[in-house]
Amino acid sequence: MTECIMDELRIIEIKKSVFADNDRDANLLREELKQQGVFLLNLMSAPGSGKTTTLIQTINRLKERLRVAVMEADIDSDVDARKMKETTGVESIQLHTGGMCHLDAEMTRQGLAALSLEKTDLVILENVGNLVCPAEFDTGSSANAMILSVPEGDDKPLKYPLMFSVCDLVLINKTDVMPYFDFDLERCKQNILMRNPKATIIPISAKTGEGIDDFAQWLVNEVQNWKK
Amino acid sequence: MHELGIVFYIIRDVKQVAEENHVEHVASVVMDIGEVSTVMPHLLSDCWRWAADKEPMLQGCESEVNTIPAVTWCDGCKSEYPTVAHGRTCPRCGSENTWLLRGNEVEIKEIKV
Ligand SMILES: Nc1nc2c(ncn2[C@@H]2O[C@H](COP(=O)(O)OP(=O)(O)OP(=O)(O)O)[C@@H](O)[C@H]2O)c(=O)[nH]1
Ligand SMILES: [Mg+2]
Ligand SMILES: [Zn+2]
Q: Residue B61 is part of which domain span?
């Protein structure tokens, strides 16, 4: 930090990214979760891409193998958390973001404090439906995943490059409606890999169940590696 | 809203720096905002006015925005070009193997006290 006097106003140089503090909090949280052997998946997507439906399907096939808990982030309702509890029976809480379009590491930490982490292997955070802001705010998650649904178009990765570049896993959902849309699966995969060569891509349908077992297996593997 | 969230982070950082420097009132905050960052400067200044006036230390404090032009690197012909005019396809060689070099910044540059 340097200072200089100019026009009677003193200038204090800061030169710091607005995201720096959150990045530090997030790294700290990630390290703590690693120590506790808890894997946190941050699941993001545009509104209505199928986060809640996919999670219900997946958790029902997974809960014999992993102890799962869910945090539903929503601007202002608890519809998703109640639905999750009723349909899967796993521990599930609602986080209100107070009008904010994303969760940061501090809000995530507060949510985790409300869960019984000692009885949990995998916490899934359903982030706010939005493709811009959640990509900029590291939540402290062990891995990031996103859902792109067929009606949104195969060129989404080109329009939201940051979101695709921060995700370890991209689920392409609603494949059951592929015949009705001008959606080229191969081109979509290419667009994703161009922005993120390391991304794992799994086409799924939360309606028919296609690909859900692959997603469940991906989670089991990730959690096992994390606990090593 | 996105910009409002960003403003809360800025306020937290600015207050901290002001306190460390024993400053009682901040006259102006200067931001470096990339042309293709997710922040819209006019929304940022509206949110800033609303939120800053609630903080005694920041009442009437101006926000100034320097826009950082976005520049993309083309791996095809190893050169740079302006992102906003040409998007992700290189205007020289047509390659799509391109990466943003700068223009993504959301930074607090300095404060005037
Ligand atoms: N055809 C079809 N519809 C689906 C599929 N998955 C989800 N849907 C439907 O898409 C709508 C939105 O699904 P949700 O699971 O609520 O989506 P979400 O991403 O949780 O939505 P928000 O939390 O509001 O952002 C619902 O009507 C689902 O029934 C799918 O694979 N195929
Ligand atoms: Mg939902
Ligand atoms: Zn080129």
A: 2-112
